[in-house]
Amino acid sequence: MPLTDRERAILDFERTWWTEPGPKETAILERFELSTTRYYQLLNELLDNEEAVDFDPLVVRRLRRLRDRRRRARFESPLVQEPPAQ
Q: How far apart are CA 49 and CA 68, in angstroms?
């Protein structure tokens, strides 16, 4: 299924968001009228869409790598262990 205009706009935004003034969260709200939580939900779904890879392979692969790194860090980080009781 081809990407929607909004999906293409999200990928375009991810390619250039740091060039815009102000925080990313503000730009997301102003441009897409979405909460940041909903935006990232849509973005994560989009990263698993092969049409997105065809549209912008560099952005999608970069974002997949970041997502994978964050997941690994979250699940592989050592738990803080308390010292044994004396």
A: 16
